[in-house]
Design goal:
Oligomer: single chain
Strand content: over 45%
Radius of gyration: 17 Å
Helix content: under 10%
Structural class: mainly beta
Number of strands: 13
Length: about 160
């Protein structure tokens, strides 16, 4: 198998020409680098403002939305680091929202000890159709902040066909 070199563009985001990678290659990774306040018991879309790479230009930084260009099986992963404002124990929920299908998938719910930051993750493999819109949603039982230290991430890779 040939090793591919993927050169960065002038923004430092990897967006190779089609001839640089195999046809149909699809993968991206984005991180949150800004603290985002979160209200208690309120569903929120998680923002990821910095692309680390985006092979097929399918991730929209402005809306934090992944929109695959081709139908196929995709592996999605997200993690969110949350710091509560008070010292109560709390619960976190994370989901992938697939808006064109109207589905909530890849749900995880975890309980955390008082006043300690928690990281919640979700990983799932889905069949996505071209044009489906995928975002990450989160809810906390208490108010706090999604931390912008690089621990909050969203990524996807096409695994078939």
């Amino acid at each position: 198998m040939k090793n591919y070199y993927i050169p960065p563009n002038y923004e430092g985001v990897y967006r190779p020409y089609v001839s640089d990678v195999r046809a149909g290659a699809s993968a991206f990774r984005a991180i949150n680098n800004v603290d985002i306040p979160l209200q208690a018991n309120s569903a929120n879309k998680v923002r990821f403002q910095t692309e680390q790479y985006d092979l097929a230009n399918e991730y929209d930084l402005n809306t934090s939305t992944f929109v695959p260009r081709e139908s196929g099986v995709y592996s999605l992963s997200s993690s969110v680091k949350f710091k509560p404002f008070n010292s109560s124990p709390y619960n976190l929920d994370i989901v992938f929202l697939i808006t064109n299908k109207g589905e909530t998938e890849g749900r995880d719910n975890e309980a955390f000890a008082a006043k300690r930051p928690g990281i919640i993750t979700a990983s799932e493999t889905f069949w996505l159709n071209a044009g489906d819109q995928v975002v990450v949603g989160m809810r906390s039982s208490i108010a706090g902040v999604i931390q912008g230290d690089g621990s909050t991430t969203f990524s996807a890779v096409k695994v078939f066909p």
